[in-house]
Design a protein that fits this description.
Largest sheet: none
Helix content: over 70%
Shape: rod-shaped
Number of strands: 0
Distance between the termini: 98 Å
Length: about 170
């Protein structure tokens, strides 16, 4: 009877530590994903974005100053409509920049606390599963936000690189 009790206790401890190790591995993977997202987020050239917005503002100022309806052709107006993406996307980026930065910092903190709890076996069972599910959802949401941010930044730079020179030359010819 004594041997059976020892066997049951050791089996129980081993299964708990095995689940904890799996959970620790999952938390480590989440930490790696958040670090990867942080690199993507901080890898954006914000100076180039500011310069694109500044050049957009200068071009629009020239257009408003020297624009006469009979001097602007249809191709220029279509290009200008395309160029306005710089303005609208830049506003969106500026709003989301601080939010995403805060979310990355929060995710690092939450995952660190969860990892400590797992190492100290302070969280187990259903609470562990809920915590892991919650953190997975949070990382997925952060991934979506960062990808949208990076795509918008790249779109601004693409639009600027492809059309800013044409717009500026046209505005200088008014």
């Amino acid at each position: 009877m004594k041997y059976i009790a020892i066997l049951l206790i050791s089996t129980l401890l081993f299964s708990c530590s095995s689940k904890n190790n799996e959970a620790l591995d999952e938390v480590q993977q989440l930490e790696n994903k958040v670090s990867e997202l942080e690199k993507q987020f901080t890898g954006i050239d914000h100076t180039a974005l500011k310069n694109a917005k500044k050049q957009y503002d200068e071009s629009i100022h020239l257009i408003k100053t020297y624009y006469f309806k009979d001097t602007v052709d249809v191709q220029f107006m279509n290009s200008l409509d395309f160029y306005k993406n710089v303005k609208t996307s830049t506003k969106l980026l500026n709003k989301n920049k601080e939010i995403i930065g805060d979310n990355i910092e929060t995710m690092h903190s939450q995952l660190s606390i969860l990892k400590e709890d797992l190492e100290n076996t302070a969280i187990q069972g259903d609470k562990l599963e809920k915590a892991l599910l919650n953190e997975n959802n949070n990382v997925r949401q952060l991934d979506s936000m960062v990808n949208l941010y990076v795509n918008n930044a790249n779109r601004i730079l693409f639009v600027h690189d492809s059309i800013a020179g044409y717009i500026k030359n046209k505005t200088l010819s008014f």
